[in-house]
């Protein structure tokens, strides 16, 4: 009977040792996995931050953005980590009305250049506030055509303006989507 109890006890002890070994191994693997994920996450995040910086630099190099965008980024902090994206989103939401007003005013005959110039002045101010360089350039050209009474120039420039406006919107959507994946980055740096 003692041998049966000893055998049973030996089996339980062996099973306990095996479960400890398995448990220790699983914990070890979990710890190793966490360490590796942390290590590679830093490397991956570092690469992603470089890609994000390159993406932003290309927006400057291609003339889509100017210094005002960097100034907005400098206002972004831990309290408002999405400040720039929120400002740009508001710009696009609010500018829809201005674009519609301009489209309607351009359909009138005769053109009211004073009203067109007023709408474009507002649009240029909004565009300047986010650093939309190409859009701002088209706004300036449009206003010049208003001053000289060139209706065809206004219409042609407005079509180009809408194209630049839509292109920048798409590029910034991609930029902000990627920025959300990367997470918080260091303070904004001035473009080269």
Automatic annotation (TrEMBL):
What's this protein's name? Histidine-containing phosphotransfer protein
Q: Which InterPro entries match?
A: AHP1-5/YPD1, HPT_dom_sf, Sig_transdc_His_kin_Hpt_dom
UniProt note: domains: Histidine-containing phosphotransfer domain (HPt) contains an active histidine that mediates the phosphotransfer.
**Phosphohistidine carried by residues:** 121
Q: Which cellular components does GO assign to this protein?
A: cytoplasm; cytosol; nucleus
Q: Where are the transmembrane segments?
A: 20-40
Query: Which cellular compartments is it found in?
Result: Cytoplasm, Cytosol; Nucleus
What job does this protein perform? Functions as a two-component phosphorelay mediators between cytokinin sensor histidine kinases and response regulators (B-type ARRs). Plays an important role in propagating cytokinin signal transduction.
Q: Which residues form the HPt domain?
A: 80-175
UniProt-recorded Gene Ontology molecular function terms: histidine phosphotransfer kinase activity; protein histidine kinase binding
Q: What species is this protein from?
A: Erythranthe guttata (Yellow monkey flower)
Which Pfam families does this one have? Answer: Hpt (PF01627)
Which biological process, per GO, is one annotated for this protein? Answer: phosphorelay signal transduction system
**Which keywords does UniProt give here?**
Cytokinin signaling pathway, Membrane, Phosphoprotein, Transmembrane, Transmembrane helix, Two-component regulatory system
